[in-house]
Amino acid sequence: MNVQIWLVLxxxxxxxxxxxxxxxxxxxxxxxxxxDTDTGNVKILVGDARGEMYGMDYDPKYKYMYFTRYNHRTxxxxxxxxxxxxxxxxxxxxxxxxxxxxxxxxxxxxxxxxDWHRLRRCDVNGINTVIISSNLQNPFxxxxxxxxxxxxxxxxxxxxxxxxxxxxxxxxxxxxNTQVDYMxxxxxxxxxxxxxxxxxxxxxxxxxxxxxxxxxxxxITNYYQPIDVYGSSIFFSNNxxxxxxxxxxxTTSTALYTDAYRIFSIYVYHQAGNTRVYVxxxxxxxxxxxxxxxxxxxxxxxxxxxxxxxxxxxxxxxxSNRKPCVP
Length: 327
Hints:
This protein is mainly β. The protein has 1 helix and 27 strands. The chain is globular. The relative contact order is 0.16.
């Protein structure tokens, strides 16, 4: 008598490790500080920054924080996070370095030169400086989408431009018709947010230039309003105060901190452990009963999967290939 018994078990084990810590870095004319959004503790990172730092961005690969010094014609950087924030000059620039963005995947640093109407780039080691565009009108803020390889540049009094990283393709997607200094990109939702200088409005639109709308009115005008979007939260400042607002509600804001000096730039640093999903699947137990002898064979396989992330990536690339909205 030969008896075969198959037991097929599909077992899934999920290992989730997520350590979250959100800190907001902000630069004044004198210092760069860090506030822990969980505890409210404020720490001075750079005590002698000295200069209007309109642009600030982070390189997660080499763990450096970069910022522009407008009047000093330089870009500075310091290691972060670190117990010893040693400030160093990264590169000398043209007149009026304003916006700043890091392409950590390609190892490039981009910045705008407001007074010389240029967009420039160099390597993260400070060499191979090139001019990407030299005919912009008062370029200020800049943001990068590393997944889709698009950049977004604010011409301060005119429009928002969407362009390829090498500027082989560029076109205006949003007419501003007022002074706009700061803009940020919500990469997950594929939306742009910006603030208006004279009216104190928060506005948003899709990365194609569609659905332009006002989501919040601060009531405070004629002040720089740096902005950084993280998830459903918007961090911004009006003069010396740092605020937090929800993008979905868009009706009220919460004051987080008041500094002695005007705030020129904001960067939200979010530290999180890797999220891994391991699936142990198809445990097959094959048992053969033959002449009173039992044989067992166990076949195990393990795979690491992230199907949701892959689907989202393909969806983003598909949407990015569409033509921008026609006004």
